[in-house]
Every structure is written in structure tokens, then in C-alpha cells.
Design goal:
With about 220 residues, the chain is an alpha+beta fold. It contains 4 helices and 13 strands. It has one domain. The chain is about 20% helix and about 40% strand.
């Protein structure tokens, strides 16, 4: 009788543990320079004569969709604030599924911009909100370039805006093999190298330049 009871208890424990275990998909974003994961306030060599330092890197990703052979499997409407100052924010978790493509937005959509004061990652206290008529900053990058003469040029790129004709939100699609851990790299070396910092060191309002740089950024994500 005791042996039978022990077998029942063991079976129930296995059953309980089986139900308690759920697999999840982890997506990690990695902003990079020269094939290195970026550390804030560290100096990187863009080439033999130019050095780059990043002091702030913060951006929104939202509306994740997962596909299999072109068919939509799942959609996640939430917006996430990724901030190099808080490395754990770069890791996102989703339910595990069989997929071969991921789509997400760089930035937040127009409905979020007009939804009023929000909380969590969208709380204005996070420093990523302008005003009701300008909306959220989708991407914030600050730092400096030091050229071959030793001149240090600070830059600030606060890219946002949701109103026509200058909406800055970008939709990004990547193909990938099924895995429990996906790493999406953001190549900031490509982004910075494509900008003439001498003539464009400051973009702080919605407009054509913000749209141009946002489109450039959308081509800097890869797996």
C-alpha cells in the first residue's frame, strides 16, 4: 500500500512539473560597433583616424509578428523600451513557436502616440516623449566623434514624429531559423558612418531629416 502511494505521488509530481515547464523564445537586441557589443562611454575606432563614443542609446521596438511560410502565427502589440543603460531591457521574451520570420516596428505607432499619458515603458518619465503634438522619440542616440585633428564633435539624434508628412516609424522584417534564442544586431557603425556629423550633428524634431535617418536605421538591423 505504501509502495502504491509512493508511485502515485511520484506520478503526480512528474505531471505537475511537466505542466509547470513552458518554453519561451528569447530575442536579444545587440547594438554593435566594429563587431563589438557597445558599452556606453567607451571609445571605439571607426577607422584609423576617427573615434566614436556613445553616451546614450535608447529606442522603442513594438508590434512583433511571427510568421511561418508567410502565414501569421502570432502578434504582440506591446511596445518595449530598449536602453543600453539597462542591459536587461535588451532581452525580450515571447511564447515559443515554430516560425521562420519576424517582423517588428522601430518606434511606436500613431495610435500609441495619441493615446494620452501611458505607463510602463511608455511613461514620459523615461525621457522618450516630447509633447502631445510631437509624440514619442522612437530612437535616441547621443555621443561624440573625434576626428583626425583631435576635434571632438558631439552629436544628438532624437528621431521621432508620427504626423504626416513625416512619420518616422519603420517596419523591419528578418528571416531566421527556429531557435530558442535569437540575436538581432543593430549596426551603429554603419549608421554613424553614413552621416556627415560635421554638417548634421543634431536632429531633435520631427521632419524630413528624422525620416531619412530612421530609414537608414531600419537597414542596420540583422540576425
Amino acid at each position: 500500500m505504501i509502495r502504491k502511494s509512493s508511485l502515485i505521488v511520484s506520478f503526480l509530481m512528474v505531471l505537475f512539473l511537466g505542466f509547470g515547464q513552458t518554453t519561451s523564445l528569447k530575442i536579444t537586441f545587440q547594438p554593435r560597433i566594429s563587431n563589438e557589443t557597445i558599452e556606453l562611454n567607451k571609445v571605439y575606432a571607426l577607422n584609423d583616424s576617427v573615434q566614436l563614443e556613445i553616451t546614450t542609446c535608447r529606442f522603442y521596438v513594438s508590434n512583433f509578428s511571427f510568421f511561418s511560410k508567410g502565414k501569421l502565427l502570432s502578434q504582440q502589440k506591446s511596445a518595449f523600451l530598449l536602453d543600453l543603460e539597462h542591459p536587461t531591457s535588451l532581452d525580450l521574451s515571447f511564447p515559443s513557436m515554430d516560425f521562420d520570420g519576424i517582423q517588428f516596428n522601430l518606434g511606436v505607432d500613431s495610435s500609441t502616440n495619441v493615446a494620452g499619458i501611458l505607463d510602463g515603458d511608455l511613461d514620459p518619465i523615461k525621457g522618450m516623449y516630447w509633447t502631445w503634438n510631437s509624440g514619442y522619440i522612437n530612437f535616441k542616440l547621443e555621443g561624440s566623434i573625434t576626428n583626425n585633428t583631435g576635434k571632438k564633435i558631439p552629436f544628438e539624434y532624437h528621431l521621432g514624429g508620427y504626423l504626416s508628412p513625416y512619420p518616422t516609424i519603420q517596419t523591419i522584417s528578418v528571416e531566421t531559423e527556429q531557435a530558442e534564442n535569437i540575436v538581432i544586431q543593430l549596426d551603429l557603425q554603419h549608421f554613424i558612418s553614413a552621416i556627415d556629423v560635421n554638417s548634421c550633428s543634431n536632429v531633435m524634431i520631427p521632419g524630413a531629416k528624422a525620416v531619412e535617418l530612421s530609414k537608414l536605421l531600419s537597414n542596420c538591423f540583422k540576425i
